[in-house]
Amino acid sequence: MTNFDFNRTIIPYANTLLQPGKILLLYGPRQVGKTTLTRMIAEANGDEYLWFNCDEAEARQSLEGQSANKLRSAFGTYKTVIFDEAQRLQDVGLILKIAADTLKFYYSLWL
From CA 31, how far away is CA 17, in angstroms rounded? Predict the structure, then answer.
């Protein structure tokens, strides 16, 4: 699939799925373009977005074991928050549940 195909099919569809309080999960094998596709989706959405690279210890520390208030502070005013390499987070499901249930932002998570 070429970049052109992504723009025509996947990106417009993915942006229809971005809704407050919902999580968009993008997963697949290594080195198939998940990060690139996620950036393209976020940029096509038009809103500014916050990107956490969970390979980095600092990003993990700012997310793990946090309350809704601390997550709200970490996310600021961003409507779209992206967790790159989210599988590296301890209790990633709980973090996303708290964020989706209480903060009502848009979220894109991919593994």
Answer: 24
